[in-house]
C-alpha cells in the first residue's frame, strides 16, 4: 500500500512529529509511505520533509498536493489545515484521504457557516481518525458523520526510544543541565503558545521550594518565557526545541502540563513510557494517558493548586512504564494499517 502523509507544516511540533513517525512506522512494516508538508516551518527548527508551498491553502500548494498524491492508494491528512487542503486538492481524483483529528473537537467547533463548511469537509474524508472514544462521538454528533466512518486510534511513541533511564543515564541527564541528584526537577515539554500556558507552569513551579523547571519547546511566547526565566534565580531553564527530549524526561521527577485545551499530548505518553509521573490539567484525552500516581487538576486551577500537586507527586511513589505500552507503535501501527486498508478499498 502506498501512503502519503500530509502535514500542515514542517514545524517541529507534536502533530507534525507524530505524522512523520507514522510514515516511518508504516514503512518499517512493508508499506510505501512518504511525507509532505503544506507549508514551511515558522520557527528556527524544521522537520526534514518535502514542503509543497508557501501557505497551506494557496493555489500553488493545492496543485502541488494533487500532483503529489497521484499514484498513492491513500492520503493521510494529519490534522488542522490538511482537512480543507485534501478535501479541495483531491476533489475529483480517485485518491481517497483519511483525516486525523488531532485535538478536542468540542473546543474548536463553531456555529453557523463555519460548522456547515466543516460538515462538508469531514464528509469528503473516507475515514476520520479520532484520538479517543469521546472525541469520536463528538465528531459524529457535531458533524453528522456516521459512526462507521469514524475510527479511534491513539497517539503512539516508540517504546524502544522512550523508556525508563538507568541510574547512570538519569545522573548524566541531570549533570548535563547542571542539576544535582537531590534537586526536585519538573519538565515542561510543548509549544510556547497561549493554549499551552507555559507562564502558568513557571509560576507554579516557582512556588515549589528549590524546584527547577526544564522547558523544552519554542513558540510565540518564547520572549515572555525567557523574561520570566531571567527572574527565576536560575531555576527555570529554557532549552528551546530539542530533537530529543529524553534527557529532559530522564532528568525529571514530574512532568507538568498546564494546557487550556489538548488532544492527546504526546509529551504525556513520552513521560509515561519513561516512568515520569504527571501533573496535568483535565483537558482532552489526558485521563486516557495518565496513571494512578499522576495528578489531574481542573483546567482553571491556580498556580498554588498546581504547585501543591507537583509537591505531592514528586514526593509520591513514582510510576511504572508498563501501562503505557498500549501507546507503543507495536500496538498502534496495526490499527492504522486496518483503517488505511479499509479506506483504500
TrEMBL record:
Pfam family, one: Glyco_trans_1_4
CDD domains per UniProt: GT4_PimA-like
Domain Glycosyltransferase subfamily 4-like N-terminal: 20-155
InterPro entries: Glyco_trans_4-like_N
Protein name per Swiss-Prot or TrEMBL: Unannotated protein
Species whose genome carries this gene: freshwater metagenome
